[in-house]
From TrEMBL:
Domain Myb/SANT-like: start-end pairs: 1-84
Organism: Hibiscus trionum (Flower of an hour)
A Pfam cross-reference name: Myb_DNA-bind_3
Name of the featured protein: Myb/SANT-like domain-containing protein
UniProt lineage: Eukaryota, Viridiplantae, Streptophyta, Embryophyta, Tracheophyta
Length: 256
């Protein structure tokens, strides 16, 4: 059931049916119907939504663990690694975190698509997650602030009066500071996206060519790579699949 749950929602995410942090009702219903029919059980939208919440909590835990110091990230195995001392320290403080350390995280690629970022690469997750977007609203003044309050606070910190001219200057200065701050954050995002694009190509090539171990011809796989490199959605879907599903996709591709 878990595999079917992830497969369908990952596909729905690729179709654009995850406009925010949740899925459209039609996607949830599709999962419920598929599970009910395949496993001959009663599964409704509420069951799917509850499991989706559980998966989000699991993803949140994984993200929390990744922020711990002294940890490594195995890009190929999708594994959080650490030495025994670090492992013991983390598990002592958080016993449930042990299940995600030094073990391959099942369905990681699918979780990235379903509840995380939109591309299953550790490097992208690390780069983008390092940008704290919450800082845009913390330590800076929102654009819809109360000018009177700001003027009052700043006038209390100085001996000058509170003339209209000074209030106008305060407003302009705060707005300029906020715009510059937001601009800096957007610059970080652009840099992260640039790094993501740079990292994706060798990662995609590595994953495609690894299928040579499954009996596929080297020249054929190069042709597949060229195709996927030009088709982002197809590449995402390929990377999200397990080996057996990649084999099926490659067999179908060979028949085109």
């Amino acid at each position: 059931m878990e595999r079917l749950f992830f497969e369908i929602l990952a596909e729905e995410a690729q179709k654009g049916n995850k406009p925010s942090n949740t899925f459209r009702a039609v996607s949830i219903k599709r999962v419920a119907t598929a599970i009910s029919e395949k496993f001959q059980v009663q599964c409704d939208a509420k069951h799917v939504e509850n499991h989706f919440k559980a998966v989000k909590n699991t993803w949140k835990t994984i993200c929390t663990i990744r922020e711990e110091s002294g940890l490594g990230l195995d890009d190929n195995m999708k594994m959080i690694t650490c030495d025994k001392v670090t492992y013991d320290a983390i598990v002592t403080a958080h016993p449930k975190h042990g299940q995600f350390l030094n073990k391959k995280i099942d369905s990681y690629d699918e979780m990235v698509l379903v509840v995380g970022q939109d591309m299953a690469t550790w490097s992208f997750a690390r780069t983008f997650a390092d940008i704290d977007l919450d800082d845009i609203n913390e330590g800076s003044m929102p654009l819809n602030f109360d000018v009177e309050d700001v003027c009052e606070e700043r006038s209390n910190a100085s001996s000058s009066g509170t003339s209209k001219h000074k209030r106008k200057n305060v407003q302009e200065n705060v707005e300029d500071d906020h715009i510059h701050f937001v601009g800096a954050k957007l610059g970080e995002i652009a840099e992260a996206l640039k790094k993501f694009t740079e990292d994706l190509t060798p990662y995609l090539y590595e994953q495609v060519m690894s299928m040579e171990n499954e009996g596929f011809n080297d020249d054929f796989l190069c042709e597949v790579f060229d195709f996927l490199a030009k088709n982002e959605l197809e590449a995402k879907a390929f990377l999200a699949k397990k080996t057996k599903h990649r084999k099926i996709w490659l067999q179908k591709f060979a028949q085109r």
